[in-house]
Amino acid sequence: MLDRYNFNEIEKKWQRRWEEQGLFKTREDESKEKYYLLEMFPYPSGKLHMGHVRNYSIGDVVARYMRMNGYNVLHPMGWDSFGLPAENAAVMNGVRPDVWTRENIGEMRGQLKRLGLSYDWDREVATCEPAYYRWMQWIFIRFFEKGLAYKKKNPVNWCPSCETVLANEQVVDGVCDRCGSVVGKKELEQWYLKITDYAERLLEGLDRLEGWPGKVKLMQKNWIGRSVGAEVDFALEGFPEKLRIFTTRPDTLYGATYMALAPEHPYARKLISGAAREKAADEFIGKLQLLSDIDRTAATLEKEGVFTGSYAVNPLNGAKIPVYIANYILADYGAGAIMAVPAHDRRDFEFAVKYGIKIIPVVDPEDPEIDIQNLKEAFAAEGKMINSGRFNGLSNKECAVKITEYMEQEKIGKKSINFRLRDWLISRQRYWGAPIPMIHCEKCGWTPEKEENLPVLLPSDVEFTGKGESPLTASKTFRETACPRCGGAAERETDTMDTFLDSSWYFLRYTDAKNTEEPFGKDRAKYWMPVDQYIGGVEHAILHLLYARFFTKFLFDSGLSPVEEPFTKLLTQGMVLKDGGKMSKSVGNVVSPEEIIEKYGADTARLFILFAAPPEKELEWSDTGVEGSYRFLNRVRRLVYGLSDRVKDAPGAYETKTPEDWKMDYALNYAVKKVSEDIGGRFSFNTAISAVMEMVNALYRYREYESADPGLLKAAVDKLILLLSPFTPHICEEMWAHTGHGGSVLNAEWPSCDEAALVMDRVEIVIQVNGKVKERIEVENGLSQDGLIRAATENAKVRKLLDGKSAARIVAVPGKLVNIVIS
RNA sequence: GCCGGAGUGGCGGAAUUGGCAGACGCACAGGACUUAAAAUCCUGCGGUCCGUGAGGACUGUACCGGUUCGAUCCCGGUCUCCGGCACCA
Hints:
The protein is an alpha+beta fold. The chain has 26 helices and 34 strands.
């Protein structure tokens, strides 16, 4: 046990020293190139989990590497500290959300320090602190002023027994998952941010994000969901109004055999004729309102509808087509109404079959296997137009263009683009969030709080019962106020903001975290932004990353952000698994960071988590693997300490004389090159570490030689410590000091690679016969193709293999191989 | 259903531009040291077969096929797993 190093003592010692020396402090230094490295800040749930350790270990390696390469690195940390768990803790344990949250932050900050992460804690932000949410509210008001924050009445899930709004996830089978009552819909006024105004730019911007994983960009693209089509107005028999629909298939207009409206469509009730129909329609609409949005929009829900008794007129051919109300039409997409073309749409087909509605094919697949007159399923692919009057014979793609042009001429319809992206509902009927800084006055309507009165503070005279509406509604001191415009009695908004708003601009706040005059100074933001590298879990691929992009674009338009896209490069790290599954309390397979640090130290924990898998992949936790990482660190330490006497007074330079020297020099420089590329270039930390391991193995062999050059040994030891230091900083500081260096490894210069050492005099060449390796020969480096061919064909073994046969072809690749093809 | 991604030893993984498959580590086995164990150090480690032996032959990157002198890598098809979206007209 004496041989195993005392990580506890070493790590505490260096952490103390780093803190005392302010080693991680960032300075605005225009003379150096900046590098802004950011990891997604955590929710202060109480303790770190392995996912955090992974996320922040990855970040710290990059931060330290960039520092050592001379960059001025901004590497901040903070807390996404508003949110429901704090409120739940208040309900369950009676501890105030702010107290609970601050305690957790204290605990987790300690854990982060215990991991030796190089954060500049002077820039720490916590979104729940008034100093932060003041500017959150300020930014909200900017949205309001630009007309991008608005209040709209919309149906939301409402549990009559708990008297609260429920998230869709809290409604299971139409029933409240807490109390079991049937959940209804309630029209509630909610605040929205008009992210849809930015849909086109959010989509376009993706193309320029070359440093983002394609997967994330694709997910965002699908989420934004741009579709190009046409708006068409249908006349309604007996009504002056026109019925507007959106379609992506204007080419199929002649095939429309019914219309379908969303139950919430403003015309839905108006078009119903006859008492019997009214009753049926009421029942139908009533039934749908009991369903949650999730169930309503489930693709598995059987298509149902009711006929209104009214008819629409096809603007192209005058055909009279029945209007239905149908459960599969969404009120808030497109026009909330469609023309249904059963022949060429899966859903319309299903509906038409059920209600015996005509099916008119208008696109001919020109495939003998498909009987177009008796379709078994909708035909949605491409083909030639039929049954479409003057458009017959065109390809359906051409036809879509032609019909749209024609409709524009005749003023029946026009080209239209629709997005799947909806406006962002940001109201939360919760306490622990930033209050929406709006005031309602009977006379003046909604007015923002005056800037000098910000922040609108959360009140402390509240009770947490977990029942009823938000505690803010119950707080008179909070609610009652004066109208900022007319001074009359007015009421504050009692909803708070979705916490995703807080995290949509925190990266800007870090550039100037203590500013009390503005959310952040423009100069500071200009120097640091954009974030050069962002690292976090893939679960944020859509929401957080889309919202952050939206905010940044808005702030850019407002002249506040210097950039339009916040994150130049993005790394989405994989999950940490145990026994093939997610670590979870219920399965009982959680490995806590604390326990690992206790047993092996922070350096081992970091090393293992970086070595076990590439960062973007899932990582399978392995206890024996951790043991192996710890063993490796001990092995390095033994090596360095064993050599320290030999290298202490060694010269700073060396000359390679023996084959052993060359090999060692090669191994050394190869490791430098590989680690540099793997950290700085492709973020492949596992292979960087294995390169260091190889170098350690080489050094173990080399030190056995009596003739080993002390200068080379010294260079190897020094560079080994430096190469390893971003991964395991504590033990490297200790070894750095032990080998006679002053100052921190973090301030040392990153080693450079001597390319000349990587050029070997002789290289091994593989000789293949018909693509199969048969022999290896050593030749001088740089031997030409002809030389290689000669060397290969003269080789005794190869001649024997050829057995007198002549080669049909010989391919020679200098430095690599010779392939002899015989028939 | 649609859209992505991935399948390599007992395991985690490597092979960066089409050129030696399995780096590095874990596990395992054998050896050295030790009274013994642990620790450490050394050796072996895809499969099948041949050879007393040094060594050699064949085969092998989910499966089938293609392109190529040469394929883990490119193309076509199949299977499996994972992820995202899911009535978006």
